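Long-time lurker. I teach an intro course on protein structure, and each term I like to show students one example going from raw sequence to a predicted 3D structure in token notation. This year I'd like something fresh instead of my usual example. Would anyone be willing to generate the tokens for the chain below so I can use it in lecture? Attribution to the forum is fine with me.
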Amino acid sequence: MRVYLGLTVDELAALEAGQTITPAEAFLSASVDEEDELAALEEAAEHGAVAAAAELDDPDGPVRLVDVASFHLDVDGSGDLAWYAPQEIDAVLREVRGTAS
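-- Reply from a regular --
Happy to contribute to a lecture. Here you go:
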């Protein structure tokens, strides 16, 4: 099932290092409707430095980088969430740490 997670910088760093994390809370969409999915993503973004969409069997279970479908963060302060592929986790970490080049 698709879940949306608000992740801390430390959780992102752990994922990048190949570790498994267990985020504090997973947000689920009320339906498969795009508006409901966006609402869950935005709610997750309010609870972490970065929002992640992940495919998990158990919404409260552990998360590995391979489970992550995408990362989302507000890079320009507009409130719009930019999309990053899981392979771009290093760029996501640079953004949230304020060291983007």
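Some talking points for your students: The chain has three helices and five strands. The beta strands are 2-7, 26-27, 50-55, 68-73, 82-84.
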